[in-house]
Amino acid sequence: MAQDVQLFDTHCHIHEIAAADPEGTHTEQLWHASGLSLDEVIERGAEAGVMDYMLVGCTVRDSELAVDLAPDLKGAHVSIGVHPHEAAATLAEPMLLERFTELAATPRVQAIGECGLDYFYQHSPREAQIELLHFQLKLAQQHALPVIFHVREAYDEFWPIFDQYDGVRGVLHSYTDTPENLAEAIKRDLYIGVNGIATFAKQPSQQAMFASIPLERMVLETDAPYLTPVPHRGKINQLQHVRDVAEFVARTRGLSLEEVASQTTANARALFTL
Q: What is the fold of 7-271?
């Protein structure tokens, strides 16, 4: 087991391995096709130095799954959330909102999200996305929980909504937007989630943006099973690959792996109050 560094994967969906189904969600299908077990993924992560990881919900159902599984998984933490893609379907079933409200009050839950606005795909109408974001932000404020935000091509509407909720803090998951919105995020003391995209970004402007993220506001993530970093492109993403992201950050900034791991893990623990 690697003890040279301690890493924190702040965003993964590995709990869905337990629900892997060839007829299920896209994430469940990917895990089913991989043939990987949950124990195997966690063990490989630990060997790479990943001591902590956040199980991130995208629906009420998989948020429940994360809450149920976490006590038996070493290093697991839980964030419950409803992805903006699921906004319309979730709002159509009041019982789901009631169940989500109950989950938010449980001690096992350490964050809300991923939630936010996605105007790139717009799988749910903008009005539904905004309504569900307000719903989750109110719960985060009520329970003093940090929020994992998914925001894509929607910052003009996101910032005025975020600013309505005093005391709410969080992280911008998988940040790939402009330097201007990065500055807005830093001004609001948000953390910035960096994952495999940073290792294969080809546009100089995007490479420059990643290089400008302050290390003291950066957290590392995989988004497993998605966004596999170089040099593992074409393979399913796993906890262990957050080390590749850390090594990329260290290499491109002239820092040691230990420096990057220490700071980003400290950032994650501060973000989630662990």
A: TIM Barrel (3.20.20)
pLDDT at 98: 97
Give the whole-angstrom CA distance, residue 150 versus residue 153: 10
Task: Name the DSSP letter for residue 229.
Answer: P
Among positive and negative, which fits the CA dihedral 216, 174, 185, 51? negative
Residues 183, 85: Cα–Cα separation, whole Å: 26
- Contact by Cβ (8 Å): 110, 272: yes
| 208-256 per-position pLDDT tens digit | 999 999 999 999 999 999 999 999 999 999 999 999 999 999 999 999 9
Whether the CB-CB separation of 253 and 208 falls below 8 Å is answered with: no
How far is 253 from 232, CA to CA, in rounded Å?
21
In angstroms, the CA 188 to CA 175 distance is 15
**Quick one: 193 exposed, middle or buried, by C-beta within 10 A (0-12, 13-18, 19+)?**
buried
Of the candidates 100, 104, 72, 79, the one whose C-alpha atom is nearest the C-alpha of residue 13 is 79
Q: Are 193 and 10 in contact (CB under 8 A)?
A: yes
pTM: 0.96
Those residues with Cβ within 8 angstroms of residue 203's Cβ, 6 or more apart along the chain or in another chain: none
